[in-house]
Amino acid sequence: MIEPATINSKMMKVELHYFLKDSSHQMDAVVRHRCEGEILKLISQIGYFLKIDPKPQTEAYSKGGLVEIWSFVFENQYLLGIISGVLISVISNLINVDRELANLQKESLTLEIQNKKLELHNKLKDIDSGSQELLEEIKEILFFILNKEYRVIRARSDFYKNLNKYPKVEKISGTQLSQNNQPIGEPTVVEREQFKKFILYTDDVPSEIDEDASIDVIAPVLKKGKYKWKGFYNGTPIDFYMKDKDFKESIFLKQISFTNGIKLKCVLEASRKMNEAGEIYISSYSVLAVVSYQFDDNLVETTQGRKYFLNKKSKSSQMKLFDE
User: Are 300 and 251 in contact (CB under 8 A)?
Assistant: First the structure.
């Protein structure tokens, strides 16, 4: 819990302690620099959701392994306390990262995140009341949001990835400090064997599925092989894989004749990845099922399109039965 009386109205600090083997005080400069960069990304995200610039600064290093002291400067003492407390919590929060990424695209969770962001916005309006209950609620909401943000997950992953490759670091700890470098509460410790639990082992994130996609085909592939087709989707040219085997077979057997202006109604998958900045981008498109295709004034529905939606309905019913 944050005690306002112990917090300077313009400054709050966090001590990040790297415990090194053999009581050493020297750390590889490249590793430390990279770790600092990831911490700055985390601070930036915290400031973004609190709608402030915490003006992070670092002080001279202390002995005892290697100790970094981060200070934050801002007029509101309560926001400063939230920044320092949440930063330590985000760094040390143990989650199953891969499962978390897989769950982020669930519709119910996405809606919950949006509601949490709105709730945070409303509660920040009353921050000057200094209510301890309100401050704890804001910390809890902000912590929830940050742990669902791809940029945060990526920055934390890269922080621990750097440390995991550097065997000299045995553990780390984070502690809130007063302006006079006095501890506020107990340190939070992460042991070396826990580092790997924070690391992303894939850049893939859940795909987006458009089950009512419309593609104007520019260039189909009329021979076998993993070649990309070309078309217009939502007014934008895209390259895509045709993964509807029945539809492709019909083309190879010349049961479907392509003419100018052919349009596909289909189920389109957008595969996505996360770059080093934690930003999501589309890596490829794939047509999973052609629901219908149209040329001139002719509209032809496909059996594979019907099968896709029947299978989806069947799986949904099974999941509901399992949940019950």
Answer: no
- Distance, CA of 189 to CA of 139 (rounded, Å): 19
Q: Is 214 in a helix, a strand, or coil?
A: strand
Helices and strands: H and E segment counts in the chain: 8, 11
Contact 83, 46 (CB under 8 A): yes
208 and 90: one domain? Answer: no
The whole-chain average pLDDT of the chain stands at 84
* Number of structural domains the chain divides into: 2
Closest of 50, 279, 39 to residue 160, by C-alpha: 39
In a 3-state reduction of DSSP, which class is residue 52?
coil
Give Rg (Cα) of the chain: 26
- The model's confidence at residue 264, banded by pLDDT at 50, 70 and 90, is very high
- Domain span at 65: 4-198
pLDDT tens-place string over residues 206-251: 888 999 999 999 888 877 778 899 999 999 999 999 999 888 888 8
**Domain stops at, among 144, 168, 198:** 198
